[in-house]
Amino acid sequence: ANLRRGNSPPVEEGVPFVGGLLKFSKGPWHLMKSMHSKYGEVFTVPLAHKRMTFLLGPHASPHFFNATDERMSQTEVYSFNVPTFGEGVVFDVDQRVRSEQFRFVADALRSSKLKTYVPAFRQEAEDFFAAWGDTGVVNLAEVFGELIILTASRTLMGREVRESMFKRVADLFHDLDDGMRPLSVLFPYLPTAYHRKRDAARAALSDIFKSIIAARRASGVSEDDVLQALIDSRYKKVYDGRATTDQEIVGLLIALLFAGQHTSSITSTWTGLYMMAGDQKYYKAAEEEQRRVIAEHGTDITFDVLNELDTLHNCIQEALRLQPPLVLLMRYAKEPFEVTTSDGRSYVVPKGDIVATSPSFSHRLKHVFKDADSFQPERFRAPREEDKAAPFSYIGFGGGRHGCMGSQFAYLQIKTIWSVLLRNFTFELVDEFPEPDWDSMVIGPKPTRVRYTRRRL
Ligand code: HEM
After folding, report:
1. Is the shortest distance between the CB of 399 and ligand 1 below 6 Å?
2. pLDDT tens track for 357-367
3. What are the phi and psi torsion angles at 251 (to 5°)?
4. Residue 154 DSSP one-character state
């Protein structure tokens, strides 16, 4: 009853639409910036027949991250993924089934398992860069896009794909990925050419994986990869404790590929660009760190060595602060709730609102991060530790109930790739330092050329 009497957040009228889509001229960034300066951390934007309420920053967002799925639901806002991930998994099943499926994923990405993936990351990265010449010009985003689908095929999809059908699977993944466009969020089943290609690619991928799963089951051979972990998973609380079906295994695998592919390749790219910008202070510091671990442990790149690379780790963390690839996280309010702002105002967000929070915006709040627009990896270290001042200050991997399950996997992979590069190449920017390209689903830098030169540390 109390909640019904509260003030609802200020509403901005007259936000332009294009074909039913919010016109985010320079991405949601400019909209959020002007709304934030007008209204502060909490405000509502009408979206066709719906409302989107923004909760920006650590004061306003805890309910977003902490509330149960019964209160803050993902299904309504993320169900556009169903034709891509497939039926019977993730956003196509009810909360109880989904939470068990997420447990399968969490188990597959546990540290003890991750250890076994490091040699694969390393070998893929070394083989990939061995093919580079003494010097050349490349677009890092493209390079990492290619490399990360190779590492993902080894560690997630498994040996069979990597060894004998990599090209075919990568092409199908490309079509599947290309079928997810801003318009697909509103109209995932619209019969466009992109969606038709997406559906065909999904069906073909499904056939490929089903035959791999059948072959593994028949041979009884067990592999060290995420595919195997998903094959071996069993429900506990639903479906009478049965094992995962082929259909579910394929769906979960595709969901994981989507969660990890662009996010990781984009973060690898920004990390490099920031390290090599300006006087290359951080590239040199990261090089020095590689020299130190080589002197101590030799040239092998292992799980333990990667865990010693604090400088590189902080550079990745800082790149992800300034340029998080997922700029808007969303939920659906299934009941009204109260929020307070850093200046003590309080509002009641009504039931039925789409609720959004933004890593890219929260990460630039000046009362949370000092010199918020500049690249300072040391802000994560004592005595600053700015990310720890309040929960949900640093949300590049989300947080709370639905925080990223692949963050450790991502760090290990990106640290492996950059360790190989730091040991074998120097870099310089050919183009100017890029702006983000807001014109896609997962936000990365505009194409940027860099020159590499081979050398050995
Ligand atoms: C969730 C970011 C890599 C698996 C999330 C969320 C974010 C995120 C922001 C929360 C979404 C939300 O609250 O709505 C990132 C970034 C990555 C990365 C920036 C790379 C730098 C990965 C990788 C995997 C992965 C490599 C798997 C191999 C997941 C899963 C979830 C998730 C399964 C869903 C968790 C849930 O809803 O309970 N990620 N991610 N991510 N991520 Fe990642």
Report:
1. no
2. 999 999 999 99
3. -65, -45
4. I
